[in-house]
Amino acid sequence: MKHYDKAANKFYANLNITELPLAGWDVFSKFFSKVCESLQDINILKGISHEQAWQTVVPFEKEVLKKKHIIVVTDAKLNIVHATQNIYDMNGYRPEEIVGQKPKIFQGEKTCKHTAQRISKAVRELESFEATILNYRKDGSTYNCWIKGTPIYNRKGKVVNFIAFEREVA
């Protein structure tokens, strides 16, 4: 058990987790579950980046653990291949419900057409973009979503994925 504790301590020390819940085990359990989900997402994202031979190294730990961003990765045809589990807290969709869908699944009647066209143009022209757009939750309610997206190139210079960092904003 001593060796396990030492290994676990070394592993968690390298994660740079700065939050430490002290209120009670029920709070800790919820926090720990979120951290475990985030770590699982980070490993999946690292796997995708390795498998697709991304040129860019993305600091997934910083984006997910520190900034609490939702990360959505699509293939070159804009089909969602992965969404971090924290997307559920923002819009009510579980990642497995949206894999294979296009990000337009989050748009609706009141979504600003101009902003949607600006994002589409940036994607078509393989440019990075940053925008806030009105999106729809699974239950039909709306929220403002800040998105920072960029194309991802493989080591041969071919676009293989797009990545978006997202969060709900006021």
Write the layout of secondary structure elements.
Blueprint: H1 2-13, H2 25-51, H3 60-66, E1 70-75, E2 80-83, H4 87-91, H5 95-98, H6 113-124, E3 129-136, E4 142-153, E5 159-169
Helix pairs in contact: 2-3
In short:
By secondary structure, the chain is α+β, with helices and mostly antiparallel strands. It has helices at 2-13, 25-51, 60-66, 87-91, 95-98, 113-124; strands at residues 70-75, 80-83, 129-136, 142-153, 159-169. The longest helix is centred in the N-terminal third of the chain and has 27 residues, at 25-51.
Q: H/E series, N to C?
A: HHHEEHHHEEE
Q: Could you say which overall geometry the principal axes of the C-alpha atoms support?
A: globular
| Backbone structural class | alpha+beta
Helix content: 25-40%
Strand percentage lies at 15-25%
What profile does the largest beta sheet have?
5 strands, antiparallel
Read across the widest sheet, the strand sequence of neighbours is 2-1-5-4-3
Arithmetic mean pLDDT? 89
Total helix count?
6
